[in-house]
Task: structure prediction
Amino acid sequence: MTSLFDSMFIEGHEQVVFSIDRAAGLKAIIAIHDTTLGPSLGGIRMRVYPSDAAAVTDALRLAQAMTFKAALAGLDYGGGKAVVIGDHTTTQREVLFRALGRAVESLAGRYIPTEDMGTTTADIEYVRKESRFGVGRDAAFGGGDDPSPMTAWGVFCGLRACLEEVDGTAEFRGRTIAIQGLGKVGYALARYLHEAGAQLIVADVDTTRTQKAATELQARIVTPEDILTQQCDILAPCAAGGIINQNTIPHLRCRIIGGGANNQLLVDEDGDTLQAQGILYAPDFAINAGGLINVADELGPGGYRRERAKAKTENIYPTLKTIFAESKRCGVASHRLAITLAQERIQAVRNLRRLNS
Ligand code: NAD
Result:
């Protein structure tokens, strides 16, 4: 079994902080992957994990994906992520997130948190009561509010590039799209796709969300167990990660995979298998960057500007076109090509620093 230090060394993580606050009941991990391009930026995930080791693995993988996401999106930030271990439906949020805020402040800006699965803009405000750092703020505080709609818009723009790659046209009318998870990102994406004329198949463990999509968007509901095996043009994973793996791939009946979820591939080899099977995969950290772009914009000149964030998010379309074209040219799976592009940008900045020092 690989030790924590070995994992960090192999994947290039800079720092992992374990934080406990007994009075607040906080048990958290902050993982900082790479700060070459700038301070690490990434969401706070709150969920129950089967073990502490599973939480550490999640934090490390998510932080690394944030490095790639920021680099590919052209942002001057590195990758970081916080994991709060616990039930995300807890109502004791102020003490918990203020305690996390103190841990964030102790890092003096090396990690800037935002929301993720299981957390909201309100939690970021609790963090901000204890720390100067935290984005994805409420509009009342000059922030861009919940970044999920921008994430969904970026996914929608990215799916146009996917359709063009596979069909030569970005027409959604007549296409069937299966969405796993109708949360903040999934439901907003479903709306965009419905407006564009797509037929939707949806699944969520929360049946009020699927019922709403059936009524509002004429979506067909299937069970969470069945969503991955639906015959469709696009499978859009918008729930948890790791769902594309050696057990699920043989049963997929889609031509494209592109969605909001982070870390959709359980391991990188799963992306190679998708390529071998002729399924186009939009690397998650490329297609779901809209939310990161939106929260990062709060730190841009003059503070948050929605139109600026939207314009940058729409660059996901040409970024994916480049990834697909280069992937085809080099015969390398799309996710590996995207990682290479991100690493090349980081390396170029490192080299420049070395030359200037
Ligand atoms: P969310 O918690 O609002 O939504 C997740 C949804 O998935 C919920 O409705 C939940 O009930 C459902 N779900 C959970 N397990 C499921 C299962 N097995 N089958 C079907 N549905 C299931 O979270 P979100 O903010 O919409 O994020 C979704 C994914 O997108 C996450 O992986 C997150 O890390 C990623 N992401 C989110 C953003 C953002 O801006 N919110 C940005 C980038 C990436």
Summary: The chain has a mean pLDDT of 96. Residues 116-117, 147-148, 151, 180-186, 203-206, 209, 224, 238-241, 260-262, 288, 291 surround nicotinamide-adenine-dinucleotide (CB under 6 Å). The first strand starts at residue 15 and ends at 21.
